[in-house]
Design goal:
single chain, 85 residues, 3-stranded antiparallel β-sheet, 34% helix
């Protein structure tokens, strides 16, 4: 049996400049939920949030392992990461 590779680890940039990392199977819906204030206590008070980076096509285990990785290594691993100056 092939593993389910529908998971993503994502990084959000909050309105206060902080970063939030999460895991999902539906990135588009999850971003909507974050901006509605319905996804996380952390982001609820830091709206709006923007998608800063995402790494998809992961197994559930890989996605959660990446989420728990230290920030510097996580950022280097995520696709499309473009730090703002």
């Amino acid at each position: 049996m092939t593993p389910d590779r529908n998971w993503s680890t994502y990084l959000l940039k909050c309105s206060d400049g902080s970063l939030y990392c999460g895991v999902t199977k539906d990135m588009e819906n999850r971003l909507i939920k974050h901006n509605e204030g319905a996804a996380s206590k952390y982001t609820r008070s830091r709206l709006p949030v923007k998608l800063a980076a995402v790494k998809g096509h992961l197994t559930k285990r890989e996605a959660y392992q990446l989420e728990k990785t230290p920030a510097d290594k996580k950022i280097a691993t995520l696709n499309d990461w473009k730090p703002e100056n």
